Each structure stands twice: as structure tokens, then as C-alpha cells.
Amino acid sequence: MTDPVEIKRGDGPIVLGLPHTGTYVPGDIAAKLNDRGRELADTDWHIHTLYDGLLDGVTTVRATFHRYVIDANRDPEGVSLYPGQNTTTLVPLTDFDGENIWDVAPTEDDIAYRAATFHAPYHKALAAELERVRAKHGVAILYDCHSIRSNIPFLFDGTLPDFNIGTNLGATCDPMIETLTSEICSQAQGYSAVLNGRFKGGWTTRHYGRPEINQHAIQMELAQSNYLTAEEAPWSYDESRAAKLRTHLTEILKTLADLAPALRGKS
Ligand SMILES: N=CN[C@@H](CCC(=O)O)C(=O)O
Asked: Signal peptide location in the record (predicted)?
């Protein structure tokens, strides 16, 4: 079986989480998806490529499995990310358009198996890397990397801003982290940005973001139109759009890495 998690260790204070860029679906689970589900439309396409090589010393923790197997950015206890609003669940029953993705719906036993086999190893690795980095630097900053189509009426009205920064209303990181990130995004020419808009940070950001122990987390949800040729299959990577976006992502990551020593011991 494909290893559920890929780790690249660096010696710096930043850890990139990549929960949704994996496309691995074991054959027995793929056989239960319907044709629509097998399109894997809700992948954070090419996000690992987009962030590759932007920051020296960065650590990356990447789930190789697809979010339709089990969603690494959802509470393993099954608690909804946005109670009362349309969202997708731990093992999603629908895609982001609210359409059924299964021919054979997952049972409670299926969910428990996938939680133990995929979700838990990913988070064991992510927690261990954050611990390692924090022991070395006295501080760790988790930057959770995401992307999504910019028009999804089932999830939100209108068109999503280009940079969607989530800190669960400031709870998951030191204020300087969200302030500096927001400033860079707002000043990026030709892009729009919002802090804690529709996307406030998923379970990963909320779970690991503990400023009181010098462990900070921030989520970046990018509109896919900024680095894909089109927000539809075949989800092709657009080198020239990506190159432009990468300059701003580099500035964010470098700024956070430079900030990290000042956060050590602040709390
Ligand atoms: N691309 C993925 N988006 C995240 C959004 C989480 C959130 O902030 O609500 C997800 O569904 O896990």
C-alpha cells in the first residue's frame, strides 16, 4: 500500500501541511465511488508543486491519500467544521457541489478503518514534526496549504477572494502572523484577500494552533484560478500564473520564518 504520508524534513521553524493534494485511492475504495466521485474534483490540485522550493529549511508533511478516502482536515471524531452550514464531512458523502460521490456509501466500520489507516498516521507525522521543530527553535509555525475553485454555490455565494487566510478568528496564532500575512496578500497587485472570511481554518489549523505553547497555525486557501489553466478537468498547472503567485507565497513564508525567533518565549 502507498504510504499515507510523505515527509520532507527541514531545519527551519516552518512546517507546511498538505492534507488535500493526494490523489491515492485504494482499489477497494475506488470501486465504491460513483463516476462523479472517481473524478476526484475536490483535490487541492498541484498545491505541493506550487509550494515546492519556496523556502529553504521548510518541513513538509503531505497526505498522499485523497480526501474522499478520509479527510485529513476534519475532526476524526466527526464533529462538523461549520455547524449549520454546508460543508463536507470526515468521509465526505458529497462533493463540494453537494452531489453524491458514492455507489456504496461508507459504513461506520469503513470510517473507523480509514481513520486508523490514513488520518491517524498523517496526524501522527504532522504532530511529530511540529514537536521536533518546536524543540529545536522554541517555536513552530504550521502553514496549512489549500486551494479550491473560486465559484462553488453549495459552499459560498459569489466569487472567492484569491487569498483566503484562516486563523479561526485569531485563535490559532500570534497576531503578528495573521497581520503580516494579510498585509502581503492585500498588497499583492492584481489579487484580492480576506482574513477569516468563508474559510476560517479547518480542523488542522484549529487543532494545532496553540500560541500558548509557541505552536502557531495559519491556513491559506488559494483560489485555483490563480495557478491552474482552468478550474475544471484536466486541472492543468499554469506555469506563468503559478510563477507570479509563487513570488507572493515566497514573501509570506520568508516573512514568517524571519518572524519566528521573535515569537519564541513570547507566551
Ligand atoms: N481546499 C480545502 N479547503 C478546506 C477548507 C477548510 C476551512 O477552512 O473551512 C477544507 O475543506 O478542508
From this structure: none
Closest CA to ligand 1's atom 2: 146
ipTM: 0.95
Compute the distance between CA of residue 211 and CA of residue 186 in angstroms, rounded to an integer. Answer: 24
Of all protein residues, the one whose alpha carbon is nearest to atom 4 of ligand 1 is 202
Residues within 6 Å of ligand 1 by CB:
20, 44, 73, 81, 146-148, 166, 199-202, 219, 221
- Span 91-126, pLDDT tens digits: 999 999 999 999 999 999 999 999 999 999 999 999
Are the beta carbons of 105 and 93 closer than 8 angstroms? yes
Domains of the chain, earliest start first: 5-263 (3.40.630.40)
Q: What is the pLDDT of residues 221-262, one digit of tens each?
A: 999 999 999 999 999 999 999 999 999 999 999 999 999 999
